[in-house]
From TrEMBL:
TM region(s), chain numbering: none
Name of the protein this chain belongs to: NAD(P)-binding protein
Domain of life per record: Eukaryota
One annotated GO molecular function: oxidoreductase activity
Biological source species: Wallemia mellicola (strain ATCC MYA-4683 / CBS 633.66)
Family (UniProt): Belongs to the short-chain dehydrogenases/reductases (SDR) family.
One Pfam family per UniProt: adh_short_C2
Gene3D superfamilies (alphabetical): NAD(P)-binding Rossmann-like Domain
SUPFAM superfamilies, alphabetized: NAD(P)-binding Rossmann-fold domains
Keyword annotations from UniProtKB, A to Z: NADP, Oxidoreductase
Length: 277
């Protein structure tokens, strides 16, 4: 039976008003779309990270123009090392007593032939940024996320993974060709999917919901080369006949960071227009 006392209005169920948020890699690509979504939906404060200081400043100026009531702060840092993650964690902890939303979006990919796949750039850096950084961000900010939360008004963590974490091929895929493979990228996203589930189980009792979005092909700086070169091939296997767009990500994100998902954790939300079916 429906609880007549509950507030079921759209603006309440999917509200992020007055939320304090952190978005890693929040100055470009999908991260900027995520940042924009939070700012335009009345978040109170947003911390964004990037290695590129100029990119951070440009993003901050743009985001601030969308909502002057939301304070946007930049944290330059390389999250591929724990010390880089600690820089962000310490910065936020010095300024906040609690945190509502954490989106782990920072990521990188690498493609090369199997026999020539480089260790540091191709494997170590990809695993560090795509997996290790998310773990240490969540672990480092867990105390702020748990502060003041309840089982009906929890904190929210969203890991931006990829359908690559579900793939069984890493070579000559949609965005690659000529024997090039993205083995470390696929492996890193599969690991992030697993990490999402294990941390969801660990943190649920502390009123922290942990979920992941697994985008298919979206047009970003990271995918632009492959999209330009293999556009026809990619669209031929895409049931919707298009790439993912900003509103697709924004709507999914708002669900996962709002009261609408207060009873949702450990889920991997595939956002690919049916390409994996």
């Amino acid at each position: 039976m429906s609880d007549k006392r509950a507030t079921l209005q759209l603006q309440e169920l999917y509200s992020v008003k007055d939320a304090i948020c952190v978005v890693t890699g929040g100055a470009s690509g999908l991260g900027l779309t995520i940042s924009q979504t939070l700012v335009q939906n009345l978040a109170k404060k947003l911390y964004i990270t990037s290695r590129n200081v100029n990119q951070l400043k440009e993003a901050q100026k743009y985001l601030q123009s969308l909502n002057n009531n939301c304070v946007v702060e930049c944290i330059p840092s390389n999250l591929s090392t724990k010390s880089g993650v600690d820089t962000v964690v310490d910065y936020v902890k010095a300024r906040e007593n609690q945190l509502d939303i954490l989106v782990n979006n920072s990521g990188v990919t690498w493609g090369a032939k199997l026999e020539d796949f480089p260790e540091q750039a191709g494997f170590d850096n990809v695993m560090a940024l795509n997996v290790k950084a998310s773990f240490y961000m969540i672990a480092g900010l867990a105390s702020l996320l748990a502060e003041g939360k309840t089982n009906t008004a929890p904190a929210h963590v969203v890991n931006i993974s990829s359908i690559a974490g579900l793939a069984t091929t890493a070579q000559n895929g949609g965005l690659t060709g000529g024997g090039v493979g993205v083995w470390s990228y696929n492996a890193s996203k599969a690991a992030l999917n697993s990490l999402t589930k294990t941390l969801a189980q660990t943190l649920s009792r502390r009123n922290i919901m942990v979920n992941a979005i697994l985008p298919g092909v979206f047009e970003t700086r990271m995918t632009r080369y492959g999209l330009d070169k293999y556009k026809d091939k990619i669209l031929s296997s895409q049931p919707t006949g298009r790439y993912g767009e900003g509103p697709d990500l924004a709507a999914t994100l708002l669900f996962l960071v709002s009261k609408g998902s207060a009873h949702v954790t450990g889920n991997l939300i595939v956002l690919d227009g049916g390409s994996t079916l």
